[in-house]
Amino acid sequence: AGNWKMYKTGPETKEFADKFKPLVNGKADGEIVLCPPFTALELLSEALRGTNVALGAQNMHWEAQGAFTGEISPLMLKAAGCKYVILGHSERREYFGESDELINRKVKAAIANGLIPILCVGEKLEHREAGTTETVIRTQLLSGLQGVEPAAVAKMVIAYEPVWAIGTGKTASSGDAEQVSSFIRSLISATFGSEAGQTVRIQYGGSVKPGNAAELLGMPNIDGALVGGASLDPEAFARIIDAGKAGA
Ligand code: PEP
Question: Dihedral sign, CA of 189, 207, 226, 248?
Answer without folding.
Answer: negative
